[in-house]
Design brief:
The chain is mainly α. The protein has two domains: about 60 residues, Helicase, Ruva Protein, domain 3; about 45 residues, 30s ribosomal protein s13, domain 2, CATH 4.10.910. It is built from six helices and two strands. Strands 1-2 form a two-stranded antiparallel ribbon. A hairpin with a 2-residue loop joins strand 1 and strand 2. Helix 4 crosses helix 5. GO terms for molecular function: RNA binding; structural constituent of ribosome. This is 40S ribosomal protein S13. Keywords: Ribonucleoprotein, Ribosomal protein. One of its GO terms (cellular component) is mitochondrion. Belongs to the universal ribosomal protein uS13 family.
């Protein structure tokens, strides 16, 4: 097990996939990190040297990811609600925010637009 950004990652996992397991890091950001440190997409965590793992962790600390990003998103939604915008009201009611229809299918909106207070 290798410690990457404070999380234990299995040694047989692909580096690209391990990076994408963090909230806020997708394909393009993982590609950019791998390219910056000359890591092939099919490289495994066990093939990385300790200085590269430290460098990747240092690079990840410069980004807004994981709990910081979740907190930032929640704060933005709460800010919208507090100033009384249309989007804030839709978030508070658990309805679609970006102009979707509400007659038939709003299950996803009710699931995603809940205000989370436990973050």
């Amino acid at each position: 097990m290798v410690n990457l950004y404070g999380v234990q990652v299995a040694e047989n996992q692909l580096v690209h996939k391990a990076l994408r397991s963090f909230f806020g890091i997708g394909h393009s950001v993982a590609d950019r990190i791998c390219a910056k440190f000359s890591i092939h997409k099919t490289a495994r965590i066990s093939q990385l040297t300790q200085p590269k793992v430290t460098a990747i962790t240092l690079e990840m600390t410069k980004m807004v990811i994981d709990t910081e990003l979740k907190r930032k998103i929640a704060d933005n939604v709460i800010r919208l609600k507090d100033i009384g915008t249309y989007r804030g009201k839709r978030h508070a009611l658990g309805l679609p925010v970006r102009g979707q229809k509400t007659k038939k299918q709003i299950v996803c909106a009710r699931r995603f637009n809940r205000l989370r207070t436990n973050i």
